UniProtKB/TrEMBL annotation, chain A:
Source organism: Trapa natans (Water chestnut)
GO biological process, one term: actin filament depolymerization
InterPro entries, per database record: Quinoprotein_ADH-like_sf (IPR011047), WD40/YVTN_repeat-like_dom_sf (IPR015943), WD40_repeat_CS (IPR019775), WD40_repeat_dom_sf (IPR036322), WD40_rpt (IPR001680)
Keyword RNA-binding: no
Protein's recorded name: Actin-interacting protein 1-2
UniProt entry tagged with the keyword Repeat: yes
PROSITE patterns: WD_REPEATS_1, WD_REPEATS_2, WD_REPEATS_REGION
Molecular function, one GO term: actin filament binding
From TrEMBL, chain B:
Keyword Iron-sulfur: no
One GO CC term, this protein: actin cytoskeleton
Segments forming domain ADF-H: 11-143
Gene3D superfamilies in UniProt: Severin
Listed InterPro entries: ADF-H, ADF-H/Gelsolin-like_dom_sf, ADF/Cofilin
The protein's name: ADF-H domain-containing protein
Keyword entries, A-Z: Actin-binding
Source domain of life: Eukaryota
GO annotation (BP), single: actin filament depolymerization
Source lineage: Eukaryota, Viridiplantae, Streptophyta, Embryophyta, Tracheophyta
Family: Belongs to the actin-binding proteins ADF family.
Origin species: Trapa incisa
Length: 616, 143
């Protein structure tokens, strides 16, 4: 058996309230670059399913940029390291420099691709550094090209003048915009025109002007060679919230700004250096905090804006009134995956902050499921009619689904934090909820009984017909109970696992069940005889987080913290397995079979990937 | 008195039959594998089972007990990347994590003495669960 990656559904850039993010891209390939956790994501704007990931940073990555010739990508992370790697051909590392002692907030290539300027949090030492990347003599690379004094706080953005004479502009949390001449770069002058954090500074493509935008809701325009202030973005119809990012149009006549007031504005930059609003783009949404816009990019004909909630809107530059293409994804660990057998088949993914996203194979992002109460989600199950979730409080929420919409959910207090919950597929009224040392039986929205069983329960599952439940304990023992009305009777105890049970699942034909533990082992049991059917499924090197059965009950897949997904054939010995290595950076947390030959997996890197299983 | 070179730490000797069977595997290739067991009463390492050359790796792994330790020798045939037929002898110290501590201690301390008797072993593997002596592990090692 072997496997093949069919599709990847990308994560969104990681965002932080009160700060902007800096996007960049490659205009010829029409790719954009952004970061999430330790990954740098390269997304193709023409085909949103065409995404690749660079996961070699040891610390969360913050910003990434293509070199002017498009061959290399330089990316910086929170430890102050800049890695330069090949944009094609498996991302071979070219060089790595420890540039600053704190996080890197922005980095720019010089127009000849030989130098990079990086700025960020220097923790008292230098906040900005420019260094040589490529040089004819090998000992030269990494050496600093100038002194960058003049800032006393974190430098949020920097820009390299794209034409000669070369200049570097930096701006930061000390409200100052500094101007350096060189190389070798030396401080020339300071502009103190802003009254709050200056979030972004950018040169126009021809280098004649640069613009700085700030949390004081203003934007100032300066002359490119001398840093003389020549104008500002007009206050009339201006932003009413902090401006987080700015980007020039390719012809240098317009800029796009995005702001915490949830709008993006396109400004015409006139000859006298002042800016006038041409159009205000409102990005749809419920109007809450997640709609604050924090990043933007003007590439070719596309205006890309990113919101705090991870929504990306792509507007057309030539037709500003046209509806934008909108898509989104997850920004955090995707902890569970389910398949809805509607037409067409869709995948629902959830992450702990309560985001539920719907995906369709072949198309990608299909929409977010909006619930009336946006609580956090720890356990999640879904069917065509209903979603049952539980979070970190004592409540279980049952939300009926009407087509695509969620109706009002009913909250049921179960007395303590649910550890695992399972719905009987054939009689969906019945839900078994595992709590700390016992189990709660739910009929509809009424708690039928709460039973204290005396052992720490870590996983639970109920059979589709609702007559049997299996509870897994901290001690590694599987206890099988039969359910009669509101009581449960212990039928059997199965001992094989050597670690706390993490997940138990019945096979779709109910003839078997599989269990997995924290000691990296999974076991398949025969349901009627309660004997071990397949053992030695010990090939993971870290705890098993999730388990899924194929619809024909022939294959079992396990996903683990060790980033691998292993698929076993129930009729063959465990050694003949398919291993998908490195499925998700940080660990695999969600797993589901879409059909007999495809598996979807999700993990800590906020991606969802669909794999094809090819039997021999 | 026939002095059987005893192991200083555990006092286990090596039966002559064990050594002879190993030499048969090595020189005449009449066995695919040999499984050795420590007989505590006689205080020596004896042959528990041998496999014919027709048997394969699956038969070998299923002959090893799940809950007890053993020593084993396996004759592994493979074809290298340059298309040469080669054969390497593996010594496997099978000591599963689920076996009793007493058994693990016994086999661990006697291993060295026993290993020294078997000359001509190419590779040694210590396996504490079935995944550690998977066929892939042997294939990786043998190249």
């Amino acid at each position: 058996m072997s496997s093949e990656l069919l599709e990847s559904y990308a994560c969104m850039p990681s965002t932080e309230r009160g700060r902007g993010i800096l996007l960049s891209g490659h205009s010829k390939l029409n790719n954009i670059l952004y970061t999430n956790g330790r990954s740098v994501i390269i997304l193709n704007l023409d085909n949103l399913l065409d995404v690749s990931v660079y996961g070699e940073h040891a610390y969360p990555a913050t910003v990434a940029r293509y070199s002017p010739n498009g061959e290399w990508i330089a990316s910086g992370d929170v430890s102050g390291t800049v890695r330069i790697w090949g944009a094609y051909n498996e991302n071979v590392l070219k060089n790595e420099f420890k540039v600053l002692s704190g996080r890197i907030d922005d980095l720019q290539w010089s127009p000849d691709g030989l130098r990079i300027v990086a700025s960020g949090d220097g923790k008292g030492k230098s906040f900005v550094r420019a260094f040589i990347v490529l040089s004819s003599s090998r000992w030269d690379s990494g050496s600093t090209v100038g002194d960058f004094d003049g800032h006393s706080r974190r430098v949020l953005s920097c820009a390299f003048k794209p034409t000669r004479p070369f200049r570097i502009v930096t701006c930061g949390e000390d409200f100052i915009v500094n101007f350096y001449e060189g190389p070798p770069f030396k401080f020339k002058l300071s502009c103190r025109d802003h009254a709050n954090f200056v979030n972004c500074v950018r040169f126009s493509p021809d280098g004649s002007k640069f613009i700085s935008v700030s949390s004081d809701k203003k934007g100032n325009i300066y002359e490119g060679k001398t840093a003389e202030k020549i104008g500002e973005l007009s206050a009339e119809d201006g932003h009413t919230g902090s401006i987080y990012a700015v980007t020039w149009s390719p012809d240098g006549k317009q800029v796009l700004t995005v702001s915490a007031d949830k709008t993006a504005k396109v400004w015409d930059i006139l000859e006298d250096g002042n800016g006038m609003v041409k159009k205000t783009l409102a990005c749809g949404g419920s109007g809450g905090v997640e709609d604050m816009l924090i990043g933007c990019l003007w590439q070719n004909n596309h205006l890309v804006t990113v919101s705090l909630g991870g929504m990306i809107n792509i507007f057309s530059a030539t037709d500003l009134d046209k509806e934008p293409i909108t898509f989104s994804g997850h920004m955090r660990n995707v902890t569970s995956l389910t398949v809805l057998n509607s037409v067409p088949k869709s995948i629902l993914s959830t992450s702990y902050e309560g985001l539920i996203v719907k995906w369709i194979q072949g198309k990608g992002f299909c929409g977010k499921l909006q619930r009336k109460e946006n609580s956090q989600i720890k356990c999640f199950t879904a069917s065509e009619e209903e979603i049952v979730t539980s979070g970190y409080d004592n409540k279980v929420i049952r939300v009926p689904l009407q087509g695509e919409q969620c109706e009002d959910g009913v909250l049921v207090d179960v007395g303590s934090q649910p550890k695992d919950l399972s719905v009987a597929l054939l009689s969906p009224e019945l839900v078994v909820i595992a709590i700390d040392s016992g189990v709660v039986l739910l009929q509809g929205t009424k708690v039928v009984s709460t039973l204290n069983l005396g052992f720490t329960v870590t996983a639970s599952v109920i059979s589709p017909d609702g007559t049997e439940a299996i509870l897994g304990g901290q001690d590694g023992k599987l206890r099988i109970y039969s359910i009669n009305g509101d009581t449960i009777t212990e039928q059997d105890i199965l001992e094989k696992h050597r670690g706390a049970i993490s997940v138990i699942r019945y096979s779709p034909d109910v003839s078997m069940f599989a269990s997995a533990d924290l000691n990296r082992e999974a076991v398949v049991w025969d349901r009627s005889t309660r004997e071990v059917k397949l053992k030695n499924m010990l090939f993971h090197s870290a705890r098993i987080n999730c388990l899924a059965w194929s619809p024909d009950s022939k294959m079992v897949a396990t996903g683990s913290l060790d980033t691998c997904v292993i698929i076993y054939d129930v009729d063959k010995p465990a050694a003949s397995r398919i291993t998908i290595k490195g499925a998700h950076l940080g660990g695999v947390y969600g797993l589901v079979f879409i059909d007999d030959r495809s598996v979807a997996s999700s993990g800590e890197d906020a991606f969802i990937r669909v794999w094809k299983v090819i039997p021999h | 008195m026939a002095f059987r070179g005893a192991n200083a730490s555990s006092g286990m000797g090596v039966a002559d039959h064990s050594k002879a069977t190993y030499l048969e595997l090595q020189r005449k290739k009449v066995h695919r594998y040999i499984i050795f067991k420590i007989d505590e009463k006689k205080k020596e390492v004896i042959v528990e089972k041998t496999g014919t050359p027709a048997e394969n790796y699956e038969d070998f792994t299923s002959s090893l007990p799940e809950n007890d330790c053993r020593y084993a020798v396996y004759d592994f045939d493979f074809v290298t990347s340059e298309n040469c037929q080669k054969s390497k002898i593996f010594f496997i110290a099978w000591s599963p994590a689920v076996s009793r501590i007493r058994a693990k201690m016994l086999y661990a301390t006697s291993k060295d003495r026993f290993r020294r008797e078997l000359k001509g072993i190419h590779y040694e593997i210590q396996a504490t669960d079935p995944t550690e002596m998977d066929l892939e592990v042997l294939q990786d090692r043998a190249n």
